[in-house]
Structure formats: C-alpha cells, structure tokens
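dumping this here before i forget
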Amino acid sequence: MSKVAVINCTEYEFDKVSMEFKRGISLLGGWQQYIKPGDKVFLKLNLLMKKRPEEAVTTHPVVVEAVTKELLALGARVIIGDSPGGPFTVRALQNIYKATGIQEVAEKTGAELNFNVEGLDVRFPEGKIIKKFHLCKAMVEADKIISISKLKTHQMTKFTGAVKVLFGAIPGLNKAEYHLKMPNINDFSNMLIDLALCVNPVLHIMDGIVGMEGHGPSAGNPRQVGKLFLSTNPFALDWVALHVVGIRPKTIPTVSLAAKRNIYHGPDNGDFIGDKIETINPPFNAPEISGEVKFPLPKFISDYLRPKPMFSPEVCIGCGQCAQHCPPKAIKIRNNFPDLNLQECIRCFCCQELCPHKAVEIKRSFLSKLLSR
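structure:
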C-alpha cells in the first residue's frame, strides 16, 4: 500500500492538530488497521539534539501529544523515545526530553518515556548492504512502532524524512560505526533503505507544519509548510513531501536507490489522498548531497574538491562536540578551536549536524559545484 494522506494544518494548536490528524488516519482506513488494544507501541520521534520546539529541529510536542492521546484512547501502551545524536545515556535522554517539550507530553498524557539504553542485534538477511543491525532494545521489544519524523533538509543526504529518521533506531554512538563503514553516499543510503525495511513501522507520520530548509538537519531555517503527512510506506511519504517543498525526489539517494531496487518507483494516480497537493513557492533551499565529484579526476584532486566543514571562529566556543561526534576522529581541539584533518574526513557532516552553536558550515568551491552537476 502506497497511499499518502496529505492534510493541511497550519499551526501547532492542539485541537486543530488533533482534528486534522484524526482526518488523516480516517483516510488511511482508521486505527483498527494498525493498532489493537493492549499493544505496546513505540513512538519513534526525531529528537536529534537538545533544541526548543520552535527551532524546527525536532518533532513538535503538539503533534506527539495528539498521536499519543489517540493511541492511549485505543487502549495501547505508549512509549515515546528516540536515540538522539551523541551518547545514548539516561542523563542525555532526560535533557533532550525536557528541552524538546516531550517530557511535558508524557506528564500530560501518562505515556512513558524510554530510558532503556540497551541495544540488541537483529538479523536482516534480506538486506542489500547490512544483514544484521544493532538496534535500540526498546524498539525491538515493542509490539508496534510508529515513526513521527520532521520535514527537513540534510547536509549529507539533502533530505531527512520518513526513511532517514529511522537511523535513530541505532543506539547512540553505534551510528558512527555505520558512517565509518559506509562513507560512500550510495552505500549509506542503501543501508538506510535496509534499515527502514528492517524496523518496519506500521505507520509513518511526518510533522511538516513547520519544516527546516537550508543547512539542516539542525542549522537551517524554519519554514512554514502547513502539512501533516501519513502513510504506511515511508518511500511514498518522502516522495510526496519532497514534491510539496519543491525538491525533485530522484535527487535524493534513498528515493532513487529505492526505485533501482524495485521497492518504490513513484506515485500512481490516486496514491495521494486528502488535501490538494501544491509545491510551495519559492521551493525549499536545499543543500547538495555530500557525494563524490562526478567528473573523473585523480583521487587527490577529487578529495580536495569535495565539500568540507568550515568552523566559524566568531561562533565556535571550543566546546569539543564536533570532535566527540566525528566518526573517523578527524577533528582535534587545539587552542580551543577545531583542527580538521581533511585526509581523514569522510564528509558525513556529523560535526555540522550536532554542533549546538551552529558554528559549522559546509563549503563547496565554485569548481566543485560545476563538476558535481
């Protein structure tokens, strides 16, 4: 099933979000298609880092509250959580739940917050790239998983949505191992596809009321989109969300590779249901993906031309988060400032993604832009 419910919703007002969300679920056949009384449901959010809801980095708490109350009314047991960037510890989770407004949702609704920081190996023999994933134990042990992603651009993969958000099913710093093993953007994106198929949420919801464009997923600019998206198919959901924000779906590696793998080739007539689909004007400002220079050049030249992180001396406070989160350990803090070894940099841009002060920019030379077209 590739139906995507597209619902107009322009503000984070609970009654409005709740009403429109119910309309979306109804269009997809109603809750009885997905959840039964007594089910233990893990709500997998995008809680990338400790950011306020209005910064548009994380899933908005009003959307989480609306979904949670619906599930509790059905008689489900609801556990809310994510494995954010950085260490996967109880203290880190406490700080993120509080900052993002998710702790307040739990207090209002009586839902549980996940503090189980264990991981579990899960075999996935059908995977193209990965045959065994190390996943958050709490997600694996749930009866059902529902994903609530955030519509955002992304510095490495250009877009993060229903497929990419499931990278948060991998606990904590284990994510760095996947970056190290798959520095090539196509390998990494094929891994994300494998992961989405392995985790297999029963329902995907995207918070697109306010999205993020530009230097996402954490240093971009909030942008009003005014949509909620719902689907059982994460590839179809990403496709329609990309269409709405004016990004060509086939420029996104997870979309193009899913088509090559005969997983999803794009919408048929009638796949999009609900409100009218229009591309916003102007389209989203989206970064280029971090992939290789496509014009054949010697490696030492192509390495030089690839996009690279640049650290702002005016903004950087030398906190060391970039060095801590760098998978290949290519960053050292010297004299209270990041020192990057470009020979070791794999262009995953975790430094930019997880910088709490927006002190990292991704720079591309003019020649690099020409050769990467």
